[in-house]
Request: fold
Amino acid sequence: QVRLVESGGGSVQAGGSLRLSCVVSGYIGKCMAWFRQAPGKEREGVAVLDSNISTNIRTTYADSVKGRFTISRDNAKNILYLQMNSLKPEDTAMYYCAGNTYYCGSKRADSYARWGQGTQVTVSS
Reply:
C-alpha cells in the first residue's frame, strides 16, 4: 500500500526557512511534486521533480517560489524534500506532497493520484 507522510511544517517569521519532508512507503514512481493550498484558494503546484532519467533530473517551480524553494529527493531513503527559504506571509498554506502520475512534470493537482495528509506552514510578517 502506497503511503505519503509529510512533516516539517510550522510557524516562522518572514525571511525564515523551513524544510518539508515527505516519507514515501511503497512505489510512487519517478515523478513527484509539492502542492499548497491556502484557505479559499485552489491547490497550487509549487515544485515538481522528474527523475525518470537519473542522470538528468528536472525540476520545475511556480513563478512565486522560484529562487526561494528547492525540491529534491533522497532515493535511498525514499524521501521527498522541499527546502523553503526567504519565506513570505503569502507562502502560508497547507503543503502536500503528491505522486503516482502519468503526467510527469505537471503542476496540475488532477494529474496526481496519491497524496499525503499535508503539513501546515504559517509565515508571519
